[in-house]
Backbone:
């Protein structure tokens, strides 16, 4: 077996028994280039079923990489988020993300209640009604950017503020709180500061608890107000579960969406057709968005789950309480499912990617993420004509974040256009 004590801090997973010399790292920037999956996945997909590994936290886990396997495990009701001993459960990383929840016996009941509480806010119809507001948020940011000149850090000045504004609007975070929540999110995602990440997670929970009380007295058309009312009326979830749900929605809706915008720009600039030409007409934008979700995988899209019962998967027995890691990145590059799997094809169809998961844990905010991506790219190129990577641009990957992303992406443009009224 591998020696967990000798793990290098930059290694997310190392194989134990069946596959040797595994070096699967937490961000795509650790590959040979920023557009390729870790080369180890090519070998891993040759092994049906799970691969035994040791995680970055030094704990044993089962890694699923192939598309068929990941899809099957996502749909298996015996795999979930809960653990009989959450504090002592095996961990994927030190980040305070997707940690084990208590109550495996009630997992599916609680999950259905969770969907009933939060689902309506993220329905396709509800998100459609937000389109004008989302477009306005991006135009406001672009107005500020063009006033400052013809150079900008797309990450810190556009992608992250845009994603932050949209998810904060949905939740109902006060304007003064939003920079705090962004900083707290960064700390919670840190791969190597466990105590600080968990302490920050507690601070976020405390602030959300305060905001729930505030919204009961000052109700608005936002998620916090709705959840605050439900909490006062005796919601089907406990107050702690409601707070955990709000926290998860913020984390999932902020940095991961921003990262896809950042990497999406890199993919478009790398296109043989040129960045602006690679952005399709409006009717074909949904296809490009799906392909970006498939290929652009900040942090490798690692999803930690737990076996709620003993599971026989092929010749492997996964025991109750075992950590199961789903590599959505590997599944989305599986040549058994995708022709030219390593190639970014904006018109790919069909595109059965697993970028938003599958089955019972399909991403609640998928419609909102799609809307933001569908708006972001054409608006950016329309408002910033001649946009290109800065001559001295050296995109910096955030190697300390569990969800990856870029810490810097400098771009320039030749002029600016204002939005049509």
Residues:
């Amino acid at each position: 077996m591998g020696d967990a004590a000798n793990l290098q801090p930059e290694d997310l997973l190392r194989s134990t028994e069946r596959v040797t010399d595994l070096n699967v790292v937490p961000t795509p920037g650790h590959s040979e280039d920023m557009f390729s999956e870790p080369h180890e996945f090519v070998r891993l997909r040759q092994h049906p079923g799970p691969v035994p590994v040791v995680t970055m936290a030094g704990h044993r886990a089962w890694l699923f990489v192939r598309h068929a396997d990941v899809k099957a495990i996502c749909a298996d009701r015996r795999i979930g988020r809960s653990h009989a001993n959450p504090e002592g459960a095996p961990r994927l990383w030190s980040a305070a993300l997707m940690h084990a929840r208590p109550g495996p016996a009630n997992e599916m009941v609680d999950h259905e209640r969770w969907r009933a509480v939060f689902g309506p806010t993220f329905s396709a119809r509800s998100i459609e009604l937000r389109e004008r507001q989302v477009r306005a948020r991006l135009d406001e940011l672009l107005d500020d950017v063009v006033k400052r000149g013809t150079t900008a850090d797309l990450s810190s000045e556009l992608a992250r503020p845009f994603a932050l504004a949209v998810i904060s609007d949905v939740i109902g975070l006060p304007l003064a709180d939003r920079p705090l929540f962004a900083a707290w999110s960064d700390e919670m995602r840190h791969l190597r500061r466990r105590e600080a990440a968990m302490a920050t997670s507690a601070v976020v929970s405390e602030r959300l608890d305060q905001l729930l009380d505030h919204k009961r007295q000052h109700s608005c058309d936002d998620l916090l107000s709705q959840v605050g009312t439900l909490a006062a009326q005796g919601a089907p979830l406990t107050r702690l579960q409601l707070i955990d749900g709000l926290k998860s929605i913020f984390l999932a809706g902020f940095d991961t969406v921003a990262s896809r915008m950042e990497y999406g720009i890199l993919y478009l600039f790398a296109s043989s057709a040129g960045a602006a030409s690679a952005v399709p007409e409006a009717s074909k934008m949904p296809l490009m968005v799906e392909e970006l979700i498939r290929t652009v995988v900040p942090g490798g899209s690692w999803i930690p789950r737990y076996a709620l019962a003993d599971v026989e998967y092929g010749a492997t027995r996964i025991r109750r309480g075992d950590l199961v890691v789903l590599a959505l990145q590997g599944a989305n590059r599986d040549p058994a499912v995708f022709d030219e799997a390593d190639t970014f094809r904006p018109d790919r169809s069909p595109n059965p990617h697993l970028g938003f998961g599958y089955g019972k844990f399909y991403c609640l905010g998928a419609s909102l993420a799609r809307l933001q991506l569908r708006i972001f790219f054409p608006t950016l190129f329309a408002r910033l004509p001649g946009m290109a990577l800065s001559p001295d641009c050296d995109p910096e990957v955030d190697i300390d974040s569990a969800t990856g992303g870029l810490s810097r992406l400098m771009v320039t443009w030749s002029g600016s256009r204002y939005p049509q009224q």
Q: What stands out?
A: The longest helix spans residues 194-217.
